[in-house]
Amino acid sequence: SDSNVQTAVVAGVVDTTAEAVEKVSKSLVRIKPQSSGMDSVTGFGIVVSKEGVIVTDKASVAPLTNPVAVFHDGQQFPIQVIQSQIDGDIVFVIPLIPPDKKNNVIVPANFSSSVKLGQTILALSGKNAEALLQGIMEKVDGELRTSIDANKTMIGSPLFTLAGEIIGFKTTSLMKDSTFYPINLLKPSIPGLVR
């Protein structure tokens, strides 16, 4: 009957969402001061290269004396700033990870530059656990405007597709509205990225 078909479709979407979150979570770090708990997380960072380069917002790193990145598996490593936008919010940091541990820890994100108006998109927030936000794309050229409530996001919150591809993230100057910074604007400036 038709109702069976309906159920199957809904279940498929739920699975896709869970898979997308799992995929993206592996490439996320939470940034916090070294000696404190997860309640003092200042923002998200996104792993953008196989060398472990992380992009985040200056505000997540600037107030901290000894910032660390907490990876998907709970391990944390000190981070160092390697490149910073002079007149923008964005900073690239590198985690100081012993070479023998790098393979298990570093999972670079998948990016997508193609996103359509009305497309379902997801964002993550939350200092401890993942808080999933869902919405649609409302404007795609020049900026990524969404229907996601800005009050529920945090600095560095990733915006991604149901395929688990990151399309943008939250920066300080975009915290007041439902706009995200497009990741494809960053691609040319990612340090050490193999293009």
What key phrases describe this protein's structure?
single chain; about 200 residues; alpha+beta; six-stranded antiparallel beta barrel; 3 helices; globular
Question: What does this entry look like structurally?
Answer:
The protein is α+β, with helices and mostly antiparallel strands. The protein is built from 3 helices and 12 strands.
Write the SSE topology.
Blueprint: H1 2-25, E1 28-33, E2 43-47, E3 54-57, H2 58-61, E4 67-70, E5 76-84, E6 90-95, H3 99-105, E7 120-125, E8 131-139, E9 144-146, E10 158-160, E11 166-169, E12 179-182
Question: How many DSSP-defined strands?
Answer: 12
Question: For the report, how would you describe the main beta sheet?
Answer: 6 strands, antiparallel, barrel
- Label the structural class: alpha+beta
Beta-strand residue percentage? 25-35%
Distance between the termini: 50 Å
Strand order, main sheet: write it out.
Answer: 1-2-3-6-5-4
Query: Could you state the oligomeric state of the chains shown?
Result: single chain
Number of helices: 3
Secondary structure: helix percent:
10-25%
Strand-and-helix sequence, N→C? HEEEHEEEHEEEEEE
Coarse morphology = globular
Radius of gyration: 17 Å
Average pLDDT level: 87
The low-pLDDT segments are: none
